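Readers of this paper often ask what the protein records in our data store actually look like. The remainder of this section carries one protein's record, kept here as part of the documentation.

:::
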Amino acid sequence: MQLPAPRGPITDRLFAELARPPHVFGPPPVGACDAEDDDAQLALFVCYELHYQGFDGVDDRWEWNPSVLALRERLEAWFEGWLARRVPRPPAPPPREVPRALAALVAADDGPSLSAYLRGRGDAAQFREFVIHRSIYQLKEADPHTWGIPRLLGRPKAALVEIQSDEYGGGRPERMHAELFRATMRGLGLDDSYGAYLGGVPGVTLAISNVMSLFGLHRHHRGALLGHLAAFEMTSSLPNRRYSQGLRRLGGDADARRYYDEHVQADAVHEQIAAHDMCGAFAAEHPGLTGDILYGAACALTLDRLFAEHLLSRWREGRTSLWQAEWRADAEVTVR
């Protein structure tokens, strides 16, 4: 993956430093940005990506460079502050009530249904845009939540491993969910290489990935990480059924739809494992962190709502939902 074009003073400075061998540099200032701020979200994403696949031409030793970590800390402080202001913290339930509280939180979410739109009204270009957005996370699906495995013990750890094993195809590379998503991208005529569209998505899309990395890379956020994953699984099965139906309506074949069809079945099971065996058991072991579990779930729901609002509002206006209009041309190909 190549570093994308910078989007402002933070990424301009960061990318210039990363092009050189590792060294010490003073971090650029991080102002009062919104969670959808393109410059700050891209800078944070790139700092996190150094812990995943990295970038061509960027020395791997930048991963733990103190200057990069100092900048990441400032960006995380900004992002956490925004989340605290934007996402109401749900009341902390008694440990035994955590699964029920998660279900109630999900049921109360009143965000717009992106999946319903794409099932019945979205055109092929809009579906391709949606897939481009999702590729930023889906091509490393499960990786951020896997950071939680060594931070757990006993039943919650076993539950998380069970979920992640399915995400990684149960040991079969071709069944990995990231690989299934690549097949969807190929079926839509899109570039399925890792990070190919990083330069084409806006800050709100990057925020969805960044919150997972934020929770996954910090042990004190492990409760929020589990709650985030639970909300992710509990809001997956029905939307993925709709996405598959929408893609079928647009002419997508079985290979292109397999990613969505797989999640209809898998996530219906994962929902119960995540709520009860993972979050419920973790709450019983750490009763002081029940509020964190619910907060992580609330963050997932809020960012997904902002994402849906962004796409649907742009499409209603007849505009691309991608960061810049020229990226839409890359997406306008024929469904196979």
Observations:
- Residues 95-331 form a domain with the Heme Oxygenase; Chain A fold (CATH 1.20.910.10).
- The longest helix spans residues 254-285.
- Confidence is low (pLDDT under 50) at residues 331-336.
- The chain has 15 helices and no strands.
